[in-house]
Amino acid sequence: MSVQHILDMIKENSIEWVDFRFTDLSGRAHHISIPAIEVDENTFKNGVAFDGSSIAGFRGIEESDMVMMPDTESVFVDPFTAHPTLVVICDIYTPDGERYDRDPRGIAQKAEEYLQKTGVGTAAFFAPESEFFIFDDVRYDSSMNTSFYSVDSVEGVWNTGREEEGGNLGFKVMKKGGYFPVAPVDSQQDIRSEICRLLMESGLRIERHHHEVATAGQGEINFRFDTLTKTADNLMKYKYIIHNTAKQYGKVATFMPKPLFGDNGSGMHVHQSIFNGDEPLFYEKGGYANLSEIALNYIGGILYHAPALIALTNPSTNSFKRLVPGYEAPVNLVFSKGNRSAAVRIPVAAVTPKGSRIEFRTPDSTANPYLAFAAMLLAGLDGIKKKMDPTKLGYGPVDKNIYELSDADKKEIRSVPGSLEEALDALEADHEFLTEGGAFSEDFIQNYIDFKRSEAKEVAIRIHPHEYSLYFGC
């Protein structure tokens, strides 16, 4: 889309404000709004200045000046603002015109460029299944003498006996009972449909939506795959629209991996494949699950580097409350066709050659999508480069319910790291695959590790409410 086309779009839609956005290290969006009458070709040529020292993990105060450079292919009209606003996603540059090596979006673009340089293929396609909860109420605090959280939902299984204004109308979602009964058990059909309407108006192709397994308003909306950076852009848009639609309904949405104890958490299963022009490279009729050797090597790279990858795909302490056996959590570093207990699943139902893909089920939506997708691609490419055979490396295939295997058989299966600290240790020990093609810099990786270790320490030193249950009477 040309700059002139955007300027015409501003006039045609009576746009009053242009909102320039970028994504920080943690995957949160930030923005600066400029009056539309002040936006012209020079805005797109020179960019928008901002203070990088005020963004956690970005720059020191002595080198704080940074520039947002608008991407003309990323615009959409904000569906929530009272004053018509056009959103433009930006890349981050230093004042001397160099790409900033800690810009997550720039890392994603460099990973795509590296794919083309390898000669393996021309494009990598990604499709995340990002699950979420929509609650009616959330309260939490953590201070010197208090630590608690409380969430509530009219659907919650704990509310079967609650006295409600007008009477309790029943039809709660039972524990693990949310996949996927019709209304009135599913009380969020309309809000998900409204989210989908807004997503489609903003440019996403929606494939379906439904209630998910857990009680208390867990849902999933699937949008169509695209290339790596565009899919990350779409996921940022997806989360923004879900958060704000929930707020308009007087509710609150969260992508936190494990907001409830004792029921399924929210993952982000990531489907991915590589094409060379129009040719799908992951398909070979007659192979295991009709996968090509390239696809198997890609899987080998994902599983071999998984302990380090998880520091980027599951980058929160809460991520590891989800990654425990028994809640459909993909904690086992094996691959399998159609098996949801494996970290890598190969979809086989109604799959065409062009739809042939692998699904990495371990990630969750606390991940920065630009970093997570780039890291997965680079791990897979390393597997292709080194011809990593996942079968010879001991990663399966395992076409059984892993949770029902004998203890002896389970011992042969490697598991994901048990904590964020373990994952960060793995990333520190194994990250050369990320620096291929200059996608991730050594500076970025060390800065990221330090940033996340600080988060882990903040949680580790705080008193947990359950410790009172265990130890107060000692």
From TrEMBL:
SMART domains: Gln-synt_C (SM01230)
Domain GS beta-grasp: 13-97
InterPro entries in alphabetical order: Gln_synt_N, Gln_synt_N_sf, Gln_synth/guanido_kin_cat_dom, Gln_synth_cat_dom, Gln_synth_gly_rich_site, Gln_synth_I, Gln_synth_N_conserv_site
Keyword terms, alphabetized: ATP-binding, Cytoplasm, Ligase, Nucleotide-binding
Pfam families membership: Gln-synt_C (PF00120), Gln-synt_N (PF03951)
EC nos: 6.3.1.2
Residue intervals of the GS catalytic domain: 104-474
Reaction it catalyzes: L-glutamate + NH4(+) + ATP = L-glutamine + ADP + phosphate + H(+)
Subcellular location: Cytoplasm
Chief subcellular location: cytoplasm
Listed GO MF terms: glutamine synthetase activity
Keyword Glycosyltransferase: no
Magnesium is among the record's keywords: no
Similarity remark: Belongs to the glutamine synthetase family.
NCBIfam families in UniProt: GlnA (TIGR00653)
Protein name: Glutamine synthetase
Naturally occurring in which organism (per UniProt): Ferviditalea candida
Lineage, top ranks: Bacteria, Bacillati, Bacillota, Bacilli, Bacillales
Gene: glnA
